[in-house]
Design goal:
With 351 residues, the protein is of the alpha/beta class. The chain has one domain: TIM Barrel (Alpha-Beta Barrel), CATH 3.20.20. 41% of the residues lie in helices and 11% in strands. The chain has 13 helices and eight strands. Strands 1-2-3-4-5-6-7-8 form an eight-stranded parallel beta sheet, sandwiched between helices. Helix 11 links the parallel strand 7 and strand 8. Helix 9 packs parallel to helix 10.
Length: 351
């Protein structure tokens, strides 16, 4: 993993660092992170490293970086309504963001119909329900993704018989939304429903994305050959797809890029500071991805960052440290990496 010390001078403040950063933001980004022993996760080493104080030279890049995959709103109606109030700073008493929620956009993933309620929370909020412009700006800032995660495939099939129709309605009602988190998973916990439920749900959601011309965020774990087969069998693919936290081989990635290219789908890879940016052969992996396919993500959810005082503000630290790892590994200027990520994010959303 790349060093988290202060960057070289040429990575420091440049002309493009014009966005205002508040004192609160500087203080939070410079604050101590949790210690390894206090993090109750198998990824504690990587989490602790990426929640260390961020060198001040990086701070003003935060308003440029989009988190392309997170679960910042939780998974229940109550959690989502609460976090929406926090984000919009409805009251000082419930605002815990401390002014650090400065990324231009957060791609907020869902995992089942049970957490497709965020737009309703937005529309009912007293600050935006009578202001269409404010509502649209919020939908862009917190861009909702609708999908069924493979871990919920069997449950959704039995509990929500009209899930696909509901998902279609949600996507149509929110033109800024896209499809995610969908995918395939053969880990021990989920492989039991792989053939019986996961494949059919994945294909249905993929085809819905094609129908509505929406981007897709894909989860794929221990399913590289299955993903290659399914994508190659589809007549059409969505306009763009992102392999969220993809950890496969460069050879598999090259085959996926080829299949997608033949079907006019642009493929991206979500880079995460606590997962695929910790690979042993990171330099080779990043060269295989290519700078024009990179997106930055955190996959943040309080349940996956389990330590006392864990909160959504840590997304800022994770994004900035993630860019540091990419820039250091590829020996590129920090500002150049940020500019490329901004351009890539715009292309991902072209649908």
């Amino acid at each position: 993993m790349a060093s988290l010390s202060a960057p070289p001078k040429e990575m420091g403040k440049g002309k493009e660092q014009e966005q205002h950063i508040t004192l609160e933001t500087d203080q939070y980004l410079s604050s101590p992170g949790p210690k390894e022993k206090d993090i109750h996760s198998g990824k504690r080493v990587h989490i602790a490293k990426n929640l260390q104080p961020v060198p001040v030279e990086y701070h003003s890049y935060l308003p440029k970086l989009t988190d392309s995959h997170c679960h910042m709103c939780g998974f229940t109606t109550a959690e989502q309504q609460y976090h929406y109030r926090v984000r919009t700073q409805e009251t000082n008493e419930t605002n815990e963001t401390g002014g650090t929620n400065l990324s231009p956009s957060y791609f907020v993933m869902s995992v089942s119909p049970g957490d497709w309620c965020l737009p309703h929370a937005i529309k009912s909020n007293r600050l935006v329900k009578s202001n269409p412009h404010a509502q649209e700006q919020d939908a862009i800032k917190y861009r909702q993704a609708y999908g069924v995660h493979p871990m919920n495939a069997a449950l959704v099939s039995s509990t929500f018989p009209d899930w696909l129709g509901t998902m279609r309605q949600c996507l149509i009602a929110d033109p800024h939304s896209f499809v995610g988190e969908i995918g395939l998973d053969k880990t021990k916990r989920h492989k039991g429903c792989f053939t019986s439920h996961q494949i059919s749900l994945f294909v249905d959601q993929l085809r819905l994305a094609v129908e509505l011309n929406r981007p897709v965020s894909i989860h794929s774990v221990k399913c590289d050959n299955d993903l290659l087969k399914l994508l190659s069998e589809e007549e059409q693919l969505p306009p763009s797809m992102c392999l969220h936290s993809f950890c496969g081989s460069p050879e598999t990635l090259a085959r996926l890029i080829k299949i997608c290219g033949e079907k006019h789908c642009e493929l991206f890879v979500g880079l995460n500071p606590v997962t695929n940016l910790t690979k042993k052969n990171l330099g080779l992996f990043l060269k295989a991805v290519g700078v024009n396919r990179m997106l930055i993500e955190t996959d943040w959810n309080v349940n996956d960052f389990p330590y006392e005082h864990s909160n959504v503000n840590d997304i800022g630290k994770l994004l900035l440290h993630g860019v540091c790892t990419i820039a250091t590994t590829l020996e590129r200027a920090y500002s150049d990496v940020v500019a490329q990520l901004v351009a890539n994010t715009k292309r991902f959303l072209k649908g």
